[in-house]
Fold each of these.
Amino acid sequence: MSTVSGEAADGGRTPQRGRPARYTREALLDLVVGVFNERGYEGASMEDLARASGLTKSTFYHHVSGKEELLRMAVGRALDALSAALDETMATHARPIDLLADAVRRTTEVLLDELPYVTLLLRVRGNTAVEREALARRRAIDARLAALVKVAAEAGEIRADIDPRLASRLLFGMVNSITEWYRPGARTASRTSIVDAVTGVALTGLRTPGAS
Amino acid sequence: MSTVSGEAADGGRTPQRGRPARYTREALLDLVVGVFNERGYEGASMEDLARASGLTKSTFYHHVSGKEELLRMAVGRALDALSAALDETMATHARPIDLLADAVRRTTEVLLDELPYVTLLLRVRGNTAVEREALARRRAIDARLAALVKVAAEAGEIRADIDPRLASRLLFGMVNSITEWYRPGARTASRTSIVDAVTGVALTGLRTPGAS
DNA sequence: GTCTATATGTTGATAGAC
DNA sequence: GTCTATCAACATATAGAC
């Protein structure tokens, strides 16, 4: 169970006119999100999604309720992961600057581990109810992150010459921008080196320490 | 001339069934790009664009050749501005670290001054020929910026523990992320404070200098 | 320059045979 | 579970009257 095409209990007599196409719902969602990210949510048609899964459009509809529901599942997964990461950070009860660094690290890790889902989430515009709901949840997470920056600023642990809200936007804008280029498997930077680089640049900047 | 509805040389006898709608081509493009950014390029229909301009769909088509051509003009404007800013930076012949700081500053300024156009550019996916051409031009600009970072790294002026390509992506990812939230006129950070903050965070980081 | 009307294709979604 | 066939809605784009 939880597979898409069932167990062929009739002993193979079934015509199977298309490709076998036996996906778990998770594998199917992975595939769908891949197409969403390639062509954009609006630019991807149900026909595109069906073809990518090796099914006809009708068969595809037999398994999924519709395009919007697919989006809801996908962005929900991203939001849950980001939310959980932030919960874990808060549970450490560390000093403000360390809380912030931990949030940056964990958010970056979620982004790398759930890359297609977070990528899709970050591109949501707000045309439909599903999208607006996702934006609202995302704003709530951003607000929690901004609060972390604010606390660190009030503790004097980050520079006072930049507004905490602006600092938060730049910081997590940098983190989120990873979705623009990171492709796992490609010969780019490793997960660890990215996490270290983000945290490093965020806290101490690019310039060589001590250089003029 | 260069207006959209002409000079009404008949002395006002024209029926004018819709809204007056007298735009320069630039004002019309501004309006179009606004809708593109609100709904997404794929999500915005010609009907949407026409309605936003106060014209019927047909009248709108009388003035513009089609949706894709509107996109070409819009992203072309963004690409030209970014390219020109980078040319200006190179013409200063400064030290590597100062070249880099200047590129960050000028790129940020273009982003703020041409916000809707650059925002649209940064969201281009690559579904059509126009989009792929824009992506190619954008990649060329990114490569020039990455080269600046590399030179600064080789001169020992930025930290050696981060791969220059990764540093470049994080740095300009942070810069580009401004399009996600900046809204001129809203009571957010001013142009100057944003430019200063970006340059500051990029080079020296968020952490308070000298703090543990 | 603007309109109404329409041509033509594509989209999300369903009906019903096998 | 899979297919072919089809629908209603909406898309881009054009024709032609005023």
Note: The first helix of chain B runs from residue 25 to 39.
Amino acid sequence: MAELLEIKDDFDLEKIARSGQCFRVRNLGDETWRFVTREHVLYIKETENRRFSVSCTSEEWNRVWSRYFDFGRSYAEIVKRAAGLHPFIDEAMDFSRGLRVLRQDPWETLVSFIISQRKTIPAIMKSVEAMAGRYGTPVETEYETLRLFPSSEALVLASAEDLAACGLGYRTPYVMDAVQKVASGKPDLNELEKNSDDELLSALMTIRGVGIKVARCTALFGYGRMASVPIDVWISRAIEECGGESPFGLFGEDAGIIQQYVFNYMIHGKDRNKAD
DNA sequence: GGCCAGGCTGAAG
DNA sequence: CTTCAGCCTGGC
């Protein structure tokens, strides 16, 4: 651990790690968490209140991780703005405070959420890990040897059998279509940064196996489109609890972040006997 | 063994 | 335009 830094805004590593938006975060015990994005690996631990020791230099923190953790935005302010508008949202924010929406790599996010359909979170992690294990570039760190998430170029050579062996099941042709299209630049995931939210969604949905839910997850977690609200079964249940009327329209550009507070509340807070 | 899990596709109404 | 069965696979 090279650096020590103080973070004043909401930042709870365990909540972030367990909130189901990322599938390659790992706990090393000792309250140290590992995050991976593109070719960067971070080990981070809260040593005392609001003080964190990190394995990267302050230069890398500022250049890579500050953006990844979305520190350009004050989550304390978001909570303050959203408070009092809707009782269910207040409950969810109380429970989930400390959560942040990560700005992950678009390609990894896209593939991860294609895989996610009809899977549990542990099963998603297993498949993503298997893909990295087979096709990802190895990286040595002070703690371990791990593999990066494979690029589309690296996956072009993968056979259907090899991908299926990663537990992709009927999603295998979906992932292969994403690999083909993205490796050939249609769509070009970098270019999509410039698109409006709606244009981004429709471009992503040209890929087989990408419907509106997966597209919105990619927009939110991979492109930082914080107004994007993916509606899955858990969020549908939350909307039912709100009398069948979606509360997310109240929150404008922050709706996707509010959605993440609610999602975390649904899977870990309410009815926690059902799904850890 | 049956059922369901962070959806999507294609076919039928 | 809307509804709905079926889908790989793992875990209870």
Note: Chain A has a mean pLDDT of 95.
